[in-house]
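Lecture 7 notes: from sequence to structure.

We start with a single chain of 270 residues. Read the sequence below before looking at the structure.
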Amino acid sequence: MRSLLLHAHRDANFESRLQVALDLARAYDAHLTCVQPITFDVVMPGDFYGIYPAELAPVARADAEEFRNEIEPRLAVEQVRWDWVDEFGLPEKRLLHHAALADLAIVGASSPDGPRGPSALAGLLAVHCKAPVLVVPDGAKGLAIDGPAVVAWDGSLESSQALRAALPLLARASKVSLVSVTEPHPEDEPELPALSGAEYLARHGIDCELVELPKGTRKVSEVLREAARARGASYLVMGAYGVPRVVETLFGGVTRSMLRDADVPILLAH
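Now the structure, written as tokens:
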């Protein structure tokens, strides 16, 4: 893990994800790229020639430069390698573009702009990003690289992808727990047993415990969150959007619920 991507944006979550990014950069001697998308999405009735957005562009640029000038001096005294990229464009498009050559993308769990709730940006990146995505909850002070880790395992392709993507982190965890929430599954969905995940980790020199927890009447997200808390997990690893994204968007789902109530960083891969 030598190339990290950080969403740079002035919002309540930025300090948390910055501290997590710095902890990762130090631990892995990684290069940190701060990507600052500059947007000014304004639609004015009757503005057929786009005059109003054109007038806003310099204002948006000035605000972006002010934020950059606040953060760059702080980065300069940190013992990490870094660079800063600011570009006009939608956040998801600019981050997806730069994530093509990143080992990990770091974003916030809450919506950076707009109503409270799970970040649509994090959800979009989790599905479309070529790199795994680390979603940082509000209030995080950093990331204990050598702390315990919990992996949500359901035998799906998504959870397998997340397990592989998390190897650099899991290799340094003090303890790794593969947690399976037992519930009925459709018969046409092939699943890998938890033992397969444990054997894969063992081939990479990582020991883990296998944990099965009954779902009962609770939501899967509640069981996973409780399992992470009980084990003092520094972070949680899970596959993103195992069911079609539109279904999760309309009806909730494990990924959406975990993003909405995240209390530890979550590594997502699809």
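Strands lie at 3-7, 31-38, 81-88, 104-108, 133-136, 149-152, 176-182, 209-214, 235-239, 266-269. Keep this in mind for problem set 3.
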